[in-house]
Fold:
Amino acid sequence: MLSLGPLAFAAPWALGAITFLPALWWLLKVTPPGPRTVRFPAVRLLFGLEAREDAAARTPWWVLALRLALALAVILAVAHPLVHPRPLAGAGGPLAVAVDDGWASARDWDARKAFLDDLLARAERAGRPVLLITTAPPADGTPLAGSGLVPATRARALAQALEPKPWAVDRAAAAELVAALPRERAMEAVWLADGLDGGDGEAFARALQSLGGGLEIVGGRPARVMLPPDPASPADRLLVSVRRLGSLDDPERLAVRALDGAGKVLGREEATMAPGQDTAAVALRLPTELRNRLERLDIEGERAAASTVLLDDRWQRRPVGLAGGGDPAAAPLLGQLYYVDKALAPHAELHRGTVTELLERPLAVLVLADVPAVTGATDDRLEAWVRNGGVLVRFAGPALAQAAGAAPGGAPDPLLPVRPRAGGRNLGGAMSWTSPQGLAPFPDTSPFAGLPVPDDVTVATQVLAEPTIELNERTWARLADGTPLVTGARLGEGWTVLVHTTANADWSSLAMSGLFPDLLRRLVALADGIAAPGTGDGPLAPVELLDGLGRLTAPSGAATALSDPAHAVPGPRTPPGLYGEGARRLAFNLGSRVGAPGGLGVPSGAVASRLGERTREIDLRPALLAAAAALAVADLLASLALRGLMSRRGAAAAVMALAVMGGTGKARAAEADVFAMDAALSTRLAYVRTGDPAVDADSRAGLAALSRVLAERSTAVLAEPMAVDVETDPVLFFPLLYWPVTPAQKPPSAGAAEKLNDYMRRGGLIVFDAADAEAALPAMTAGLAMPPLAPVDEDHVLTRSFYLLKDLPGRYAADAVWVAAGVAGGGNDGVSPVVVGAADWAGAWAADERGRPLHAVVPGGERQREMAYRFGVNLIMYALTGNYKSDQVHLPAIMERLGR
Amino acid sequence: MTEAGARREGRAQQLAARLPPLLVAAERVAATVAGGVHGRRRAGPGESFWQYRPTQPGDPLSAVDWRQSARSDRLFARETEWSAAQTVWLWRDPSPSMEWRSSRELPTKRDRAELLALALGALLLRGGERVALLSGALGPTAGGGALARLAVAMDGEPVPSGPLPPALGLPRHAEAVMLSDLLAPLRDVDAAVRALAATGAVGHLVQVLDPAEESLPFQGRIRFAGLEGEGETVVRRTEDLRSAYAARLAAHRDGLAAIARSVGWTFAVHHTDQPPQAALLALHGRLATPRPGGGGGRC
Structure:
């Protein structure tokens, strides 16, 4: 390899061919391209006309340059130039490449892969065999195995197919693998490490060093792990923490996304990891409805299993059972559970039934409305359920009050937080002097703390509690007089809650207040979901598994059922993912099982480097070969052209195509700009270019003369008129567009028609003059949104806007002029968007530079021409000022009134 | 007939439709007269009435028109209009040098020459004249299918060894129209013309040239090769040769004109980029008017 600063040649011997270039130059110079042959009948007349010898013909200089450049490009390509070459340290011998493909490498896997490809490409060039070792156990459950010594090309293909695994690396096994390698030749080792040490890192490094060719350890970016949020975190937010395994000098920004099952982002929160820190806490605030839909949390822009958290039922649905006493056939508004149902339906999964039925299924919360103490086996099951983490919410009612009264001295019901006193307490009844009580603010220790207390909630009847020592701390809500309204107590893992009034409107207006849903939601949030999903019988079959890049895939490989979720370790047999069907669905997350591996130390004698520290090697050979091919094509074309074998039209087309690609777009844009500036910077009339030179000249002369007349007779000064091509030019700058219709004109295209419609809709005025081609007018206007037309009557503003006119002649004293019918009250100030006539007005207006008319008017007389000018002035005034002169119509009546 | 031939005939018909039927000014009537369909605007053998004239001594009695004579005291003879047809011998050069054009937009010289020949034939046939091919491929013919026969026969014409066809089977004092590029050496042309003129034939030479042969519009280093095996020459800068070439061409043309003049023939030049009507009109005029000094005093 020959190095020249950042440039090097892999095959420098090829550069020797450059010395032949002068010879090539001389050769090309003395052998000009052959003359083109023309067959010519009158060749006899040419004989003997040129006596001089034809020897001085020359190859054109540019052909010389082209061919020399072509030869140079080929020579350089053969020499294989490289920018920023990275020669391998060890000159020869095999290369051992160890790759950590565990979860911790996933974060910058693309960069690792690029490095690997680069490394193996260099080995390929050097012709070194490669031994590729991956350290994570393969997905099919087989033990670790190296690739064996293979050619670098094959190793490159293997490396291309590598993917990070969603489990940890097994360096002990890898070290054994390396130790078992034959030691005939010294092997240079490169270890693309993930930077974590689970304990066997040093042993593996030493094993690699023992190969005898030196060791380079290449590290990447430290991995990040997202820990699953605590299922018991507050109802309104998910607390997620992200941990970085390894330190970075720069602060890192990260965004945690919350996604639903369809991949839709429901929440996103950003956090910054300061240089010294290695954790970041993120609170995702989500309404319960959205939170129930969450299935996945991940870090934006990072594809890794460790930074992905799958959520299962523990974080999601709260199944709530409802069981009520009373008459099930009661009218809905009087039903015991009607208000509970309404309040919880949007936020929880509700089940109804008897207590026995409800306990058959997993439940987070059980609401019992005025159900007295249950007895027997059901009672035991209920208590066991609560102790296991269930939340039992009971509402008082007549039945409960009666039951309490029936057993005043008996053992306390373990399913009630307090012991109710017999009978209820009636406030504000017909026989009572007290009035119904409102609510007191919630105590700070209560789960309801912070909820606003409405003024309009009154409680007329309640069940009172026997005063005990714990009563005060168990009271979560009280009435204004201090008596408890909601009491709650812990029972085992769960809660028992008693609401001292009914769940319907019988005893209080609480159930009808806006507070009620909030209270119930807080109570439901007490439950931490269905107690420990996956604890049921038998192992859980894998349903969807995470791959190393954080994608959910169908189970494959060696994945088996998960039998002990609490103690399972992610591996080929139990990769992270979703296990179990239906209610037993369990998210097995990598983040919670990662532990805290330490950083990887670099043993003495090994070289440590980081990914991306050195610039990548750039291979110039493909570019040079492409250039040589392009030059060869150019040379072929040039040779053909020189010999006259390429038709001139073909060459012109090729050159045109190149030129069009190059510059015309810009030129056209500049042209359009100039047109827009011209049109917009001063007010001017415009006419449509018909393609008939005579008609266009008339239009131009006519509008110019009219502009002059207008300037003489009014204060409106218009600039020179412009020609407009309706297909290409914008028309919106002009107050008036004069359109002489000729039979040869093509109707406007769809795009042009749309443009003109827009122009008319926004207050433009198009004057169609069909003097020569009345028959062509319908076809011409077919694509336009023409309003219904009516002849100009004598009261129309067009006859009043400047002069008072009776008829509107042009070159011909034509018949009616048509305008939009009945637009007086419409938009655009009542100005008709079109004026249609056949009088050849421009012909009448047209005058040469000395003001002499160009055409005779028919039937004739200067009066007709003057009237035509007056019509023109009226027309422009109409276009410029709209209908402000329309009151002229009423002038006679006004004058008459004034006179009177 | 080939399809191309049919198309050519159609175009020739179209072209001829714009001109009046051609009545060849009969010059050497005696030599080539044959019973024809059109009158000669003079008294003579024929069928249609021409004029009455007072009888003269020697008129046969059968010539007297008794009905007319009965109206007066004198005797009138009835004369009919002389009907006669002239034969025109056509020839267009079939040699390879005619099969050439300088650009795709132009017809080849041979196409143009054939078109002119056929259009002229169509005009003649419409006028009641007879046409024949100078090469001997078709004898004098007239009537409905004559033009088609002419076109077919023209396709199979042999290439003559000289610049013009030999005067085989040509009657004396015939009238011939020859369309060719006439680029052969003047000596050869002169010999061929004199051979034809020796039979007393009157000829009309039309030189059909491509505009490129006139202006030599090529540039740069070019190898020119002939189409009839004349050889080839390499020219280094063709644009330098343009004026010398033009002078040579003019000299050649002057020579052709002189040859034609010396035997009393006409000579004209036609370029393929010009409309064929112009050439046809000129030919029409030259054939329809008697030439002074051509011995046509009797016409």
